[in-house]
Amino acid sequence: MEKATLKVGLVQQAVADNDKHRNWQRSAEQVTRLAEQGAELVMLQELHGTLYFCQEENTDCFDLAETIPGEATSFFEQLARQLNIVLVTSLFEKRAAGLYHNTAVVFDRDKGMVGKYRKMHIPDDPGFYEKFFFTPGDLGFTPVETSVGKLGVLVCWDQWYPEAARLMAMAGADLLLYPTAIGWDNRDSADEKTRQHGAWETIQRSHAVANGVPVVVANRTGFEASPVEGDPGIQFWGQSFIAGPQGEVLAKASTENEENLLVELDMGRGEDVKRIWPFFRDRRIDAYGDLTKRWRD
After folding, report:
1. 13-25 pLDDT, tens per residue?
2. What does the CA dihedral 154, 158, 160, 162 come to, rounded to 10 degrees?
3. Which of 23, 93, 113, 150 is a good FRET partner for 70, with 20 to 30 A between their CA atoms?
4. Could you tell me the pLDDT band of residue 3, with boundaries at 50, 70 and 90?
């Protein structure tokens, strides 16, 4: 990379309804604030334009999807151009009738849309019925080339998989970015909530350590009621963060507040760290063949 430092920002927001235009504008206001503070790269959280609709299996929710290109990409493309930044967004993509993806889209200053990533790992758990809505991604783990470097963009559930982070890093990603929507079931105990959040932060910081790259995570916040009677809804736990290439937390948001984070990353540190901890040099690639199997019987 040409620049030694990179100012990276993220937006942590709550979503109150499915008024996409209002939600886009609210996000744009915060992106603008970050750009005015010098941010060159800004990321929004997963599915930031609507409520997290995957709490129920409802075919009406497919009406929330956007085409690419479409109204959403036009709005954020114009915003990135206007602010002269690289912008990472997230949307529910309608690829064709009956074919939908959970997709991150990257815009680069006046170049417009320069790439996208379709979420590869799709969960299916109570309150997170994503397999009903999203077809697994088919674009692989390929960083998006931008004016600020190669962005290893992944989405939410992908963040639990070291294979995804590793493959992005092996393809030259300068940093890993995770738009996210994760929260607690309010029936869980306080101890269980603490364990869940700790695991979530730890696994992502470990991706920074194992690959020697910064990690940027934007999670949503706020409570979103379930449309299903008797379900407890989701309390999104916020706590978005930015970590350096040794997993050190450089900035972290609160649990309940809408807020922005802005960090100036030293992009040369990754090279320095890799020289001290040469994990890629010492990988035993001759012995890893079974990683492509579901299980070792």
Report:
1. 999 999 999 999 9
2. -70
3. 150
4. low
Which of 7, 40, 46, 61 is flagged as catalytic? 46
Copy the structure tokens of residue 259.
């807020």
Phi/psi region, residue 6 (left: phi>0; alpha: psi -120 to 50; beta: rest), is beta
SS (HEC) of the chain: CCCCEEEEEEEECCCCCCCHHHHHHHHHHHHHHHHHCCCCEEECCCCCCCCCHHHCCCHHHHHHCECCCCHHHHHHHHHHHHHCCEEEEEEEEEEECCEEEEEEEEEEHHHCEEEEEECCCCCCECCECHHHCCCCCCCCCCCEEECCEEEEECCHHHHHCHHHHHHHHHCCCCEEEEEECCEECCCCCHHHHHHHHHHHHHHHHHHHHHHCCCEEEEECEEEECCCCCCCCCEEEECCCEEECCCCCEEEECCCCCCEEEEEEEECCHHHHHHHHCCCCCCCCHHHCHHHHCCCCC
The model's pLDDT over 221-236, given as tens digits with 9 standing for 90+, comes to 999 999 999 999 999 9
Q: Which overall architecture, per CATH, does domain 5-277 show?
A: 4-Layer Sandwich (3.60)
| 46 labelled catalytic | yes
- Where are the domains positioned within the chain? 5-277
What pLDDT, on a 0 to 100 scale, did the predictor assign at position 155? Answer: 98
Cβ within 8 Å of residue 10, ≥6 positions away: 42, 43, 44, 45, 216, 217, 218, 240, 242, 260, 261
